[in-house]
Amino acid sequence: MKAQGSSFIGFEDGFEESKAVLFGAPFDGTTSFKPGARFAPSAMREDSWGLESYSPYLDKDLEDLKLFDYGNLELPFGDKKVALRMIQEHVQEIIDANKIPIMIGGEHLVSLAPVKALSKKYDDLQIIHFDAHTDLREEYLGESLSHATVIRRIYDQVGIGKINQFCIRSGLKEEFEWAKKHTHLEKFTYNTLESCIRRIKDKPVYITIDLDVLDPAVFPGTGTPEPGGINFHHMLEIIGMLSKLENVVGLDIVELSPKYDTSAASTAVACKTLRELVLATIK
To answer: Running along the chain, 283 residues long, what does each successive block of 10 average in pLDDT?
Structure first.
């Protein structure tokens, strides 16, 4: 596997020697409000060089890990099934080489593909999901594959009791009612995250962060901004808790739409979130 272009800061090792592989999934074909998430991977790579590879929060450096940046997949804009298949095949190649996939979306639907690949390898795959939205609809506008249905489709893959959702503050009433019987969903906050991590810390875990979990005052650059979210210090606290997980087998961050924040502050927040998350969970 060879790199397809410029890399995210600190992801400059070769594929063979790497512990984890970063790639972009620039797809936003089911975005229901403001499109533009497909531009996030390239924007983040460029702006990552405005950061340091070293984290003073964690006292760790990306350069001390073996990390490879493949670049972006070339996905068809208009065919979500083909796009998902291509992502899944790419993730399969990564995990077949015993490496950890790290994905930059793109809209949230792209998270379904890595989960499909990883659930074949890990029977007891657990999901930790941070988001403003439930994403638990059975269908949206008649479509079963959508960024509004992605966690419901992930449930179809992993089964009952394996999805842990935090900071959720938007969704249909029936989604919240469905979650009471099928997922662990915490509205607004992450007070139960620590106990969740204790419960699943030695199990294989996939982490998906929809960046609209952050308040629009912190992160306006997203297609579906939802007031009432967490701030960046909360995100750092969350990531500190996630560092206690012993078997993170994959992760993603999704739903940055760079053009909706002309200051590029949202892109900087996304880059720093990715840096901290990688340093906390890739061991």
So the answer is: 81 97 93 89 97 97 97 93 98 98 96 98 97 96 89 97 98 98 98 98 98 98 96 98 98 98 97 98 96
Structure tokens at 216: 């629009």
Of the CA atoms within 13 Å of residue 152, those in its CB half-sphere come to 21
Structural domains in the chain (count): 1
pLDDT at position 33, please? 78
pLDDT tens per residue across span 40-68: 999 999 999 999 999 999 999 999 999 99
**188: CATH:** 3.40.800.10
Confidence at residue 4, expressed as pLDDT on a 0 to 100 scale:
64
**Within a domain: residue 174?**
yes
CA angle 103–184–222, rounded 5-degree value: 40
Q: How far is CA 24 from CA 39, 50, 97, 188, 243, in A?
A: 10, 19, 18, 29, 23
Q: Is residue 75 part of a domain?
A: yes
Separation CA 163–CA 144 (nearest Å): 19
Q: Are 15 and 90 in contact (CB under 8 A)?
A: no
Determine the length of the chain.
283
**Residue 32 has what pLDDT?**
76
Whole domain around residue 184: which residue ranges? 20-281
